[in-house]
Amino acid sequence: MFKGMNDRGHLLTERRNPDSMRLDAMSVEECVAVMNRADADAVEAVRRIAGDVARAVVLVSDRLLTGGRLFYFGAGTSGRLGVLDASECPPTFRTDPEMVQGVIAGGLEAMFRAKEGAEDSVEGGARDVADRGIGAGDVVMGIATGGTTPYVHGALQEAKRRGAGTIFLSCVQHFPDETPVDVVLRPLTGPEVLTGSTRLKAGTATKLILNQITTLSMVRLGKVYENLMVDVRATNTKLVDRSIRIIDMICGVGRTEAGRLLEAAGGHVKLAVVMQKTGLDRPAAEERLAQAAGQLRRAIET
After folding, report:
1. Which one is catalytic: 14, 29, 30, 88?
2. Number of CB atoms found within 10 A of residue 174's CB
3. Which member of 119, 178, 192, 286 is catalytic?
């Protein structure tokens, strides 16, 4: 057990928010205004730890660049947000589904229906790390907005024992038994509008941070050029249209020529851009892109 587990009243997320003490007596418009002000607090809390988030991005992207994986471990809302962020990476960045994974206490059933007691098992967190063969090349990020979730700490402890990189995200102050990790992300969002409901401000801060970590890691992996999602293959009508528009925006050749380039590149946007910018044929452009480790800017500016 972790100290403070039985009495969580001292934690910031468990305190009462003075702005919402009359929530049940307010008009709907007043309630919306209170929640909007609270959401702004979440954004500010994330801004205050920008340096720590940057450290997390470097840790994650460095491991991913060498073939490692990122795992989010959490329970309840924290676990669901991790699974959500992980599931968005393959369609957004064309990553292997194994690269970024979300693990929730109680298994995937807990995504849709709360599984009582699953978050209280230190052993469960450690077991889920072991079951996935997590090792020194990987990163485990434990998400526990309330700070003390045993499942998350069990996962972090086992990950650390195996030599994996470790990140801990918490929206409360440090407590004595906190697991030592490589990077701590602590956006102090304060008391919730609905006391103890960390799916609100704390959940918003969590989502913002996960957005930053995966998006900026993928930028470092070469899956973005300027602010465009260039690591995409045109496999359906929507993606064909997006791919043609991206090629046109980068190369300025018009939709017809962009479509021809996309077809010549086998539906691969980055390859089409390299072919147009360098005048190379497809095999030579593929080699140039490979030599640049998939970094489009490097490939076309070499």
Report:
1. 88
2. 9
3. 119
Is 119 considered catalytic here? Answer: yes
Domain ranges of the chain: 12-220, 237-301
Does the predicted model carry a pTM greater than 0.85? yes
Q: Strand pairing partners for 104?
A: 74
CATH number, span 237-301: 1.10.8.1080
**Catalytic-residue membership of 88:** yes
N-term to C-term CA, the chain? 56
What does each of the 302 residues of the chain score in pLDDT, given as a tens digit?
Answer: 444 445 565 788 888 988 889 999 999 999 999 999 999 999 999 999 999 999 999 999 999 999 999 999 999 999 999 999 999 999 889 899 999 999 999 998 889 988 777 899 999 999 999 999 999 999 999 999 999 999 999 999 999 999 999 999 999 998 888 899 999 999 999 998 999 888 999 999 999 999 999 999 999 999 999 999 998 877 789 889 999 999 999 999 999 999 999 999 999 999 999 999 999 999 999 999 999 999 999 999 97
Contact 165, 184 (CB under 8 A): no
Q: Which CATH class is domain 12-220?
A: alpha beta
Q: Are 53 and 120 spatial neighbours (Cβ–Cβ below 8 Å)?
A: no
Classify the phi-psi angles of 266: left when phi > 0, otherwise alpha if psi is within -120 to 50, otherwise beta.
left
- 3-state secondary structure labels for all residues of 75-142: CHHHHHHHHHHHHHHHHHHCCCCCCEEEEECCCHHHHCCCCCCHHHCHHHHHHHHHHCCCCCCCEEEE
DSSP alpha helices (H): ranges in the chain? 28-48, 50-65, 76-93, 122-131, 150-161, 201-220, 237-251, 254-264, 269-278, 282-291, 296-301
What tokens were used for 202? 């704390």
Paired residues of 140 in beta bridges: 71, 166
Whole-number Å distance between alpha carbons of 184 and 133: 23
Neighbours of 241 (CB within 10 A): 13
